[in-house]
């Protein structure tokens, strides 16, 4: 693998549910809960085993984003503090009862915007923040103190929207220009995983064991091994698929299908599940789908669940 040098600036700072009507389309052998934003209803969840849909987080126009720890114990939310500055309030709370574990305000570095959100590390000790404008990648401790700031790779600043994804052991995957790069602690150098020769690609996600990557490229979903090998297309249609998310056991992928822009910065997509076995599945919204494709229809609903606004999770 190619080794890359990093400029790592280190800091020594210390709901309601709907159950009546038709039964869910989701097989009861699936586990966990699907989480997604929808229109003006806030963040919703569907229990993969029972098919019951509920409100997970009420709508909040100030909320930039949310994350759920791998062990489903913590929720992380990031919200704009004020219209007068770019400070962001991070809140870590318990999923079981809403009790606040920690809360702090964060001022974006290097003139970053007030639209940051964060993701929790697998061991719940760190928060990773993706670049917006000039901020670069930022790592915080969950008490709010700054662990470090990855300002550039080989002297080149990251673009807005470059991804940062946690791996087991608090390793990271970054996207930078056409590259997918792995960093292991202490995050001072990285290894090139794969060059992506696509004009349009992104939406990286990793399974819980850290062995597989899924992403969107060329309008469809692809999978590969964590070292970049065995790169295969796993969805096909006459439309566009986005935002893959592995099931907790890694055996399935939740994907956004029939992706349709609905405004300058917004879009709508419909949820389907496919096996994460490396085969290609037709998920077209009109034509017959491949055997094994599961449209996500909650109890009491008659149509495939739609999502919008931000990403999805399966925990």
Plain-language structure description:
- The chain has 315 residues and is an all-beta fold.
- The protein is 0% helix and 47% strand.
- Strands 10-11-12-13-1-17-16-15-14 form a nine-stranded antiparallel sheet, with no helix packed on it.
- It is globular and about 50 Å long.
- The two termini are 32 Å apart.
Instruction: Give the strand order, joined by hyphens, for the main sheet.
Output: 10-11-12-13-1-17-16-15-14
Q: What is the percentage of strand-forming residues?
A: over 45%
Name the helix and strand elements from N-terminus to C-terminus, one letter apiece.
Answer: EEEEEEEEEEEEEEEEEEEEEEEEEEEEE
Q: How many alpha or pi helices?
A: 0
Rounded average pLDDT: 91
Question: What are the segments in which pLDDT stays under 50 over at least 5 consecutive residues?
Answer: 11-19
Helix content: under 10%
Strand elements, count = 29
Helical/strand content category: mainly beta
In whole angstroms, the N-to-C terminal distance is 32 Å
Main beta-sheet strand count, sense and barrel state = 9 strands, antiparallel
Based on CA atoms alone, the radius of gyration comes out at 19 Å
Gross morphology: globular
Give the topology.
Elements: E1 3-10, E2 17-18, E3 33-37, E4 43-47, E5 53-57, E6 63-68, E7 74-80, E8 88-94, E9 100-106, E10 119-120, E11 126-129, E12 137-141, E13 146-153, E14 164-166, E15 172-176, E16 179-183, E17 189-195, E18 201-206, E19 212-217, E20 220-225, E21 232-233, E22 235-236, E23 242-246, E24 252-261, E25 267-275, E26 281-282, E27 294-295, E28 306-308, E29 312-314
């Amino acid at each position: 693998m190619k080794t890359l040098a990093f400029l790592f600036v280190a800091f020594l700072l210390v709901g309601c549910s709907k159950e009546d009507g038709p039964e869910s389309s989701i097989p009861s052998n699936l586990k966990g809960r699907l989480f997604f934003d929808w229109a003006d209803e806030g963040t919703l969840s569907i229990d993969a085993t029972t098919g019951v849909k509920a409100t997970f987080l009420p709508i909040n126009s100030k909320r930039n984003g949310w994350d759920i720890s791998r062990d489903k114990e913590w929720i992380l939310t990031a919200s704009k503090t004020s219209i007068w500055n770019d400070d962001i309030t991070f809140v870590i709370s318990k999923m079981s009862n809403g009790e606040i574990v920690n809360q702090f305000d964060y001022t974006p570095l290097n003139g970053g915007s007030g639209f940051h959100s964060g993701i929790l590390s697998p061991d719940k000790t760190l928060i990773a923040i993706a670049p917006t404008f000039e901020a670069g990648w930022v790592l915080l401790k969950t008490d709010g103190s700054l662990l470090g700031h990855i300002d550039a790779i080989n002297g080149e600043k990251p673009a807005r929207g470059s991804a940062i994804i946690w791996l087991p052991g608090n390793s990271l995957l970054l996207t930078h220009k056409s590259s997918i790069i792995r960093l292991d602690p202490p995050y001072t150098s990285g290894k090139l995983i794969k060059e992506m020769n696509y004009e349009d690609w992104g939406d990286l996600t990793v399974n819980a064991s850290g062995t597989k990557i899924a992403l969107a490229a060329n309008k469809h979903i692809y999978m590969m091994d964590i070292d970049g090998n065995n790169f295969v297309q796993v969805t096909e249609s006459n439309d566009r698929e986005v935002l893959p998310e592995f099931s907790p056991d890694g055996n399935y992928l939740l994907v956004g299908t029939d992706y349709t822009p609905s405004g300058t910065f917004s879009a709508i997509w419909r949820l389907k599940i496919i096996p994460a076995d490396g085969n290609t599945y037709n998920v077209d919204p009109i034509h017959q789908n491949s055997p094994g494709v599961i449209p996500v229809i909650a109890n009491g609903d008659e149509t495939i669940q739609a999502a919008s606004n931000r990403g999805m999770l399966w925990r």
